[in-house]
Amino acid sequence: MKVSVIIPVYNTEKYIGRCLDSILRQTHRDFEVLCVNDCSPDHAMDVVGRYARRDPRIKMLGHDRNRGPMVARQTGIQNASGDFYMFVDSDDTLPVDTMESLIAAARKDASEVVVAGHNVVDKDGNKTKEDFPLLQDGVYTPLEIFHSLVERKIRHNLAFCIFAKSLFNGDFYTLENQANCEDMILFYELVGASKRVSVIRKAVYNYYQNPGSTTHTAISRNVLNQMIYVFNFQYGFLVKNGLPESEVLGFVLPDLNILYLYGGKDLLQKLNPKILEALDKHAIRNYLPLKKRISHLMCKSMPRLALLLLKAKALLRKQLV
């Protein structure tokens, strides 16, 4: 079975070579690689071009302006010809047997989606952590997967998965320059369109913690606005797909602390009215346990101290690893 690997490319000249090397080393050999140039300001696509000249499985696509990873992935999807699709970030890599493992699970279980785990790798290439789904290997319904997401037993990252071509027939939410949790939105939609989802407790992806990546940059006003869209999407999608409202609110509300911590309190009015109602000091006890309510109150009333404590906690955790 042919695999289409879709890679948005933007400002990763230093890393795209190692990404492509890891794909070309795959034990499964029937694949294509669609590198989508999102108007990268560096020479990343020159690197891709050198690889493409040596291997015709590597294809180069592009935009005439920077449109963000959501649109870049859609461009890749529109040009893909595989039986299964994968999404890889251009600064990450794949273990040598990734495609083989994911396809084997899809075949065995007749599943349209396979969700797996990943390795966390530091900037020097050292593996610092293995992160697996907190579920047993097996087949699950989309509703069971959504419950597991809300219970934080699995992650919503597109990169640790494979998806059947049949799931890509519909329309998808696609926002220009949405670069925060945009993979979560497509993950939800693809799982929601499926009937069978396999879970395997195996690391199929190497996620590099590069200091310059999106997840390691400061939280700007633009990012906070993007997060508002994400919170509203999560709430609406999960409730529409059968999860109890109280369960979804218990999942979404703790993440709203980011708005208090980084000066986005005034943006709360853009939230879905149901989410806003749940933030009321009397209502919130219906959705959050005591420990999370205390954390929420601290972030709301003393954001500077709360942020300082969170940073200290992260630093201590890093030193203990």
Write the topology of this structure.
Elements (H helix, E strand, L loop, with lengths): L2 E7 L6 H9 L6 E7 L6 H11 L3 E5 L6 H11 L4 E4 L10 H12 L3 E9 L5 E5 L6 E3 L1 H9 L10 E4 L17 H12 L3 E12 L12 H20 L4 H8 L4 H5 L11 H6 L11 H12 L1 H18 L1
Parallel strand pairs: 1-2, 1-4, 2-3, 5-9
Antiparallel strand pairs: 4-8, 5-6, 5-8, 7-9
Helix pairs in contact: 5-6, 7-8, 11-12
Characteristics:
9-stranded mixed sheet, 321 residues, Spore Coat Polysaccharide Biosynthesis Protein SpsA, Chain A, 41% helix, alpha/beta, single chain
What this model shows, in words?
The structure is a single chain. It is globular and about 60 Å long. Helix 7 (221-240) packs antiparallel against helix 8 (245-252) and helix 11 crosses helix 12. It is built from 12 helices and 9 strands. The chain folds into 2 domains: 3-215, Spore Coat Polysaccharide Biosynthesis Protein SpsA, Chain A; 221-320, no CATH class. Strands 1, 2, 3, 4, 5, 6, 7, 8 and 9 form a 9-stranded mixed β-sheet that branches. It is 41% helix and 17% strand. It is an alpha/beta fold and 321 residues long.
Helix-strand sequence: EHEHEHEHEEEHEHEHHHHHH
How would you describe the shape?
A: globular
Q: What are the segments in which pLDDT stays under 50 over at least 5 consecutive residues?
A: 213-217
Number of helices in the DSSP assignment: 12
Number of domains: 2
Main sheet makeup: 9 strands, mixed
Q: By CATH's scheme, which homologous superfamily of the largest domain applies?
A: Spore Coat Polysaccharide Biosynthesis Protein SpsA, Chain A
The CATH topology of the largest domain is: Spore Coat Polysaccharide Biosynthesis Protein SpsA, Chain A
Summing up helix and strand content along with how strands pair, one would put the structural category as alpha/beta
CATH architecture of the largest domain: Alpha-Beta Complex
**Overall number of strands:** 9
In what range is the share of β-strand residues? 15-25%
CATH class of the largest domain: Alpha Beta
Question: How widely separated are the two ends?
Answer: 40 Å
Rg, nearest Å: 20 Å
On the 0 to 100 scale, the average pLDDT is 93
Q: Tell me roughly what share of residues is in helical segments.
A: 40-55%
